Amino acid sequence: MLFIFSEIYIKTIMKNTINFETCSKCGECADVCPSDIILKSDDGNYFFPEELEYLCVKCCQCMAVCPANSVQVNGFEYGKDVIDLQHDIPDYQHFVNLLATRRSVRNFKDKEVPDELIQKIIDSLAFMPFGFESGVIQITVVNNRKKLRESLPLFSAFYDKMVDWMANPMSHFFMKRAMHPAMYATVKDHLLPIIKSGHYKFESGDDNILRNAPCMLIFHSRLNAPEHLEDCWIATTIAMFSAITLGLGSTIIGLVPPALNKGKGIKEVFAIPEENEVISALILGYPKYKMKKTVNRPKNNINWLK
Residue 63: is its pLDDT beyond 50? Predict the structure, then answer.
């Protein structure tokens, strides 16, 4: 199955309101507003000046903090979009335990992932923070191992060509200029040697790219969307941890975005709009092996300033 989950954010003339009859005049909404567009009138009422409403980023902090449910942001409703918190926040140790449970899973059982579990992962993204505009992320869900396997020759061919590009002085020069220095170092010192070893070739039938995963989530956005890069990575991270709670394993596959963005015809396979930029990809499935230990990595790059 191949389908696309997409939220489209459209900037419109907003009509945010505050119910003067129920408002307690506590002023919390004005204080919490990041855009400072809730003002206090001479008679003590708080209101949204019409000329400033275009600055509203629809974070709904004003609605979330209001004790009387008096604030109304256009397009959002209490009980539906703004809901009561359960206040059962896990303590620090439970949070750390969840972090420690996360491992990059590259060996999966030959078992399909139910659409219902994928939908739960997507539903969890409704609570993610966003940079500037909500809803700029598009997620392509490929819950079809056959479809993923059919794409492997295209991925493999793209990385074979990368060896030729890096070997050609002219194309190498332009690639180096086009890449961020950190990305260039990764390609040159890490990725290129692996490609040359034949690790990503599909001729043998081995899948060292998508690791025989039954499912993949592809995070992308229109290229000019504000802070879409950050938002896609936030969504990817939350999806990765959400998967753990559902008994699934995952791995972020850095090989996928460059091939989709630069490779010929690969976007078409996954029905990704040509004008969109793919930022990240997360493979999902049931882990074949259960990790019995975690790795406590060194924390020696901390600099305290007091």
Answer: yes
- DSSP character at residue 78: B
Paired tokens of 21: 């009859």
Q: Are 211 and 108 in contact (CB under 8 A)?
A: yes
- pLDDT tens column, 183-195: 888 888 888 888 8
Q: How far apart are the C-alpha atoms of 66 and 61, rounded to whole Å?
A: 9
Q: What is the CATH number of the domain that holds 35?
A: 3.30.70.20
Residue 191 within a domain: yes
pLDDT one-digit tens code per residue, 211-239: 999 999 999 999 888 889 999 999 999 99
What is the residue range of 145's domain?
Answer: 90-291
Token representation of residue 304: 């305290």
State yes or no: pLDDT of 49 exceeds 50: yes
Residue 208: closest CA among 197, 200, 220, 196: 200
User: Residue type for 204, please?
Assistant: S
150 lies in the same domain as 238: yes
> What CATH number does residue 233 fall under?
3.40.109.10
CB 128 within 8 A of CB 235: yes
- For residues 104 and 155, membership in a common domain is answered with yes
**R_g of the chain, CA atoms, integer Å:** 23
> Closest by alpha carbon to 290, among 117, 110, 101?
101
Strands (E), the chain: 2-6, 17-18, 39-40, 46-47, 71-72, 138-142, 215-222, 249-252, 276-285
Do 188 and 95 share a domain, yes or no?
yes
Q: What is the model's pTM? A: 0.85
